[in-house]
Write a structure and sequence with these properties.
Length: about 290
């Protein structure tokens, strides 16, 4: 059972001055995370989640809690967002990643709707450059129409594999549900990308599954390039003990990348892929040009 606590935060948008999300061609300017901790911390991805070793969680270790034991909600996130967006002088340059250290559609969202209330705030503005909503949860379909109404919003769905029988892996149902959510959101008019991050062992059909998913682009990443420490964080994680395969090898991810390219999928690699969605004006010029 995940403990839930509430705090009143002072700020909600975190300016990005360096790090993974700034390393691509089109870097993010801000992140937005309405929680410290993650309600998915006890499932398989929590075993290798780099957010478990980030400062905004580690301060909480004094409470003796492990990653997944607790989630601390910034209960005033939507109100702070409204103030910060109203005051922002450079909204047209804002590229926001929601969320880098938690999942915006973790189970608690069903009750507290902090993501939905933040989206309601974003929907009042049409002049930001980019909002990426990064999740692994099919719960996002509840907000498909709201996301579609925000002209600069993208859904980014994590799908690390299409297999369901890995010892540490997702159930096949969950893979199916995520694929269904991608399709539902794409049909509702949402821009969707899939992040195969980190790339886990997959079936020979995975490239076709991704190519036919309805997503507009795919990002492929590896443990070594994507964990922010050249694989060290993963090596020290509970996942590394149980993986039972050479998770350091990037070959399967590179093979998948090549297979997607061969299918003419818009595919990006690791940090360049994450920070690879062009500015809105550039995409509009391309469409009209
Ligand atoms: S959903 Fe994301 S933030 Fe949450 S435990 Fe899994 S990898 Fe970490």
């Amino acid at each position: 059972m995940t403990a839930v606590r509430f705090v009143t935060a002072k700020r909600i948008l975190t300016r990005q001055k360096g790090g993974f999300l700034t390393q691509g061609v089109y870097p993010y300017t801000h992140t937005l995370s309405w929680a410290a901790g993650c309600g998915f911390g006890s499932i398989y991805c929590g075993k290798y989640c780099y957010a478990a070793v980030m400062p905004n969680w580690l301060y909480n270790k004094q409470a003796g809690e492990q990653w997944g034991d607790a989630v601390i909600l910034k209960q005033n996130a939507p109100e702070l967002l409204a103030v910060e967006l109203a005051k922002a002088k450079n909204r047209s340059e804002m590229r926001i990643f929601m969320s880098s250290v938690t999942d915006p559609y973790q189970p608690l969202e069903r009750k507290h709707r902090l993501t939905r209330r933040c989206l309601d705030v974003f929907a009042q503005y049409d002049d930001l450059d980019l909002l990426v909503i990064q999740t692994r949860s099919p719960l996002v379909i509840d907000d498909a129409e709201l996301i579609a109404s925000i002209p600069y919003a993208w859904l980014s769905m994590t799908l690390e594999t299409d297999l369901g029988d890995l010892p540490y892996g997702p159930s096949s149902n969950h893979v199916r549900q995520r694929l269904d959510a991608i399709k539902t959101c794409a049909e509702a008019g949402v821009n969707v990308q899939i992040t195969v991050s980190p790339c886990l062992p997959y079936s020979p059909e995975f490239a076709d599954v991704l190519a036919n998913s309805g997503a507009k682009r795919v990002v492929v990443d590896t443990f070594v390039e994507g964990d922010g420490s050249s694989g060290e964080r993963t090596a020290n994680s509970p996942f590394a003990e149980k993986a039972g395969y050479d998770w350091r090898s990037g070959d399967p991810a590179r093979d998948l990348y090549a297979e997607l390219q061969a299918r003419s999928v818009d595919v990006g690699w690791s940090a360049n892929g994450f920070a690879g969605i062009p500015p809105r004006q550039q995409m509009l010029d391309l469409k009209s040009g």
